[in-house]
Design a protein that fits this description.
Layout (H helix, E strand, L loop, with lengths): L2 H22 L37 H12 L13 H24 L1 H10 L14 E3 L3 E5 L1 H15 L4 H11 L3 H20 L4 H4 E3 L3 H8 L4 H8 L1 E6 L2 E6 L10 H10 L6 E2 L4 E3 L18 H17 L6 H12 L4 E7 L5 E7 L4 H11 L7 E5 L3 E2 L17 E8 L4 H4 L7 H4 L6
Parallel strand pairs: 8-12
Antiparallel strand pairs: 1-2, 1-6, 3-5, 4-5, 7-9, 8-9, 10-11, 10-12
Helix pairs in contact: 3-4, 5-6, 6-10, 7-9, 7-10, 7-11
Amino acid sequence: MSKIKKFFSRKKEEAAAFKLKLTGSSMGAGHKLNSTKPEAPSSSSRQKYEAYVPPKRNELSNEARTAANAALARIDKKTSREFNTSLSAVKAQAKRELEAERRQKEEAEASASTTTTSTTASGGDNRNLACEGVFFRCPMISDEILPKSAWKARIKEFLYQQLEGDRGLTGCLIIHNCNVKEKADECIATLLRYLENLIKNPEEEKFCKIRMSNKIFSEKVRYVEGALDVLQAAGFNEVKIDDEQFLLWTREQTEQDLDLPTLVEALKNSETIPLELDRNIKVLLPSQARRVVLPDEFYRLAPEEIKKEQQLRSEAIAQSQMLRTKAMREREEHRNLRMYRYALVRVKFPNGLFIQGTFNVYEKIADVFEFVQSCLADESLDFSLVATSEGKLGEEDLEKTLFDCKLIPNSLLLFSANGVSAPVEADLNYLKEDLLMLVQAM
């Protein structure tokens, strides 16, 4: 079965499963009268979620591993020994940086100039970006990790390669994936009208031909990518009648193994090929976690629009010296949050290391727990996350989104292993060994 047919087959199965869930939700699960009652799940323990599985990465070559070790060695200025990503080396480096961070805080409190210098150093220089951008995967096509713009080009290339084998179904996907949404929706509505008329009245001549100069056809179908492929698969062929171009339908010209009802269903169920947001996992040392400058992809607005928005807001605040009500402050805060499309989440462990991941602002707190759990050497470890702004995230927060909890555009969560004392926590390693290889070079 081709990838295109698998896509529509999966959509059909999902629709059937959803329908079954709706019809059976009020009935509850069946059980025998003499069977024992299943135990109710404990509400005190956090539900274990299926861990997020990071994409497989190619193993480093000896040359790349040597280069990485050399770059990490430059972080430690107090020793000339080669730095490596072993557990002891990373823990020692994290401890040294935590101690240096404490000393720097003390110096910052004593000297205002130090604060000014550090603020200037953390400006909008591209070299200080917290991450390189936002990346995605497309399981339907390949295991590559690419920006969205690159995936759009790859998806279009992939679909046009499939046309020869499955012209009708592929044409439906091309309409959705290679045109702006408004044009795609109008085109599909028009095509459905053509095909449904044919299904109901296959013998009527007026439904068997389409004048290509017709205004509706020209505006909504003719120049939309994929539309003519769908019509060709349905059995329409271009002919000339009385010096005018028409599309004429004959049943014999319908694509093999495809009928009009199937094509109608495909048009109704087709959608953009889904992309999965890659977490872009990074493991950071304390000194590296200070960089929080976000790339442009995190914003809904263009950089110029963001600057203009900030300037207008600053001018409005400067001109209006009146006290703002709570409702006014909340509206302003909500407006600020809606500027962002993605969120950067950092989790700090007691041993000083950080993990960093990229999330959609409407992903749930449960997704963050899954992400953290997937990074742990012991995935069964019971742990808590504390937001520096919102406090401890509990059971009641799991279904809330990052937007709901105001954990955007970037947030810091503190990791705590439940039932482990603070002195012991600081000396434990929590992350999988392969993640320690992701410790970022300065």
